[in-house]
């Protein structure tokens, strides 16, 4: 762990390099660097193949981010979230910017970033409430500079809050070429939620919603991140778990009620999803608080 105040020709910066524990690196989201800068002259910073994820937001001024083969204009109040394994550069405009940034990583960081991109998350976005962004940076910065003996746990908590903040801006369906009408797909999902216990097939849904079943399947996965069949199974198993825990009905009765029969098929699907049989699930969870 260390920190550096830097007054140079191009920037005035205050940064802290952080060294997490081995436990944090193996099990948590962990901090690598946190800092702030104020540009003194126009300049460009370039990097690539850095094992890190970068979040920063612009407090004042403006600049340009070059990432993924595209240039993004970044203005006051904008946020940036990128994977630093990929080449990137950023430069301030004549309206010299000031930034606050966080470099972080962790075993779950890449899957989270990929999910962010899959859902339509953009390298640059503008949150409605700038104070929330500043509050996240301020609290993480304070913890990193503290001597708290559970500092890495608290840093993980704050980085999880940052991830939650970022994912709340990831859903941009207008950036994803969706096969099918969004409202139709939402109605389809609602239909499954209420008719999961009935016989449902792709052909039936295609006839009901007047869309080719291949287009319907592709559009559903694009919008909700899973296939129609998988969503139907997960919905049925979720209801089955509730009945296993809170009723005395037999496993066969529960399978029938949730639209999965005969018994052997229900048991196989349940174990495939939960890793244990329906009876084992009931035994483990029936007395839990």
Give a verbal description of the structure:
This protein is of the alpha+beta class. The chain contains eleven helices and eleven strands. It has a seven-stranded antiparallel β-sheet with strand order 1-2-3-10-5-8-11. Strand 6 and strand 7 form a beta hairpin. Helix 3 runs antiparallel to helix 4 (151-167).
Give the SSE map.
Layout: E1 2-7, E2 11-17, H1 22-27, E3 30-39, E4 44-47, E5 53-60, E6 62-67, E7 70-75, E8 79-83, E9 88-92, E10 98-105, H2 109-118, E11 124-125, H3 130-144, H4 151-167, H5 182-195, H6 202-209, H7 213-224, H8 228-246, H9 251-257, H10 263-274, H11 278-285
Helix pairs in contact: 3-4
Number of helical regions: 11
Low-confidence stretches: 1-6
**Coarse shape:** elongated
**Biggest sheet: strands side by side, in what order?**
1-2-3-10-5-8-11
Strand content bin:
15-25%
Mean pLDDT: 90
* Radius of gyration, taken over Cα atoms and rounded to an integer in Å: 24 Å
The level of helicity is 40-55%
Q: Tell me about the largest β-sheet.
A: 7 strands, antiparallel
Please count the beta strands (DSSP E, at least 2 residues each). Answer: 11
- Helices and strands, in N-to-C order? EEHEEEEEEEEHEHHHHHHHHH
CA distance, first residue to last residue:
42 Å
Which structural class best describes the helix and strand composition?
A: alpha+beta
